[in-house]
Amino acid sequence: QVQLEESGGGVVQPGGSLRLSCAASGSRFIAYLMGWYRRAPGQQRELVATVTDGGGTNYADSVKGRFTISRDNGENTVYLQMNSLKPEDTAVYYCHAKILGTDYWGKGTLVTVSS
C-alpha cells in the first residue's frame, strides 16, 4: 500500500524559510507527478506546486519566485523549499503523488508563519 509521509512543517517568522519533504513508500513505480497542495483556515485546498518525473514544474502564482519544488526519483521523494514566507502562507500542506493513474495524499503538515 502506498503511503506518503511528510515532514518539515513548523512555526517560522515572516521572511523566514522552511523545507518540506515527502517520501512515497510501498510502490516500486516512480510517481509520474508529485506535488504540494495547501489548505488555509476557512479556505479550500489549493495547488502550491507540482513536478513531473521528467522535471517539469508548475507553481501557483502566489508562490512563484519564493518556493522551489524538486524531487528525487530514485527515492520517490519530493521537496518544497519555501523562502520569504508570508503570514498568508499559513496552512496545512499536503503531499500528493500520482502513481499509475492513482492519486495518493499525505496526512498534511502544518506551516505557521507568524511573528
Task: Describe the structure using short key phrases.
single chain; 115 residues; mainly beta; 7-stranded mixed β-sheet; 11 strands; 0% helix; 55% strand; globular
Structural commentary:
The chain has strands spanning 3-7, 10-12, 18-25, 33-39, 46-52, 57-59, 67-72, 77-82, 91-99, 102-105, 109-113. The protein is an all-beta fold and 115 residues long. The strands form two sheets. Strands 2, 4, 5, 6, 9, 10 and 11 form a seven-stranded mixed β-sheet that branches.
SSE ordering: EEEEEEEEEEE
Q: Tell me the radius of gyration.
A: 13 Å
- Biggest sheet character: 7 strands, mixed
Unreliable residue runs:
none
Helix content estimate: under 10%
Number of helices: 0
The pLDDT mean sits at: 95
- Described by the principal axes of the CA atoms, the overall outline is globular
Separation of the first and last Cα atoms: 40 Å
Beta percentage is over 45%
Helix-and-strand structural type:
mainly beta
Number of strands: 11
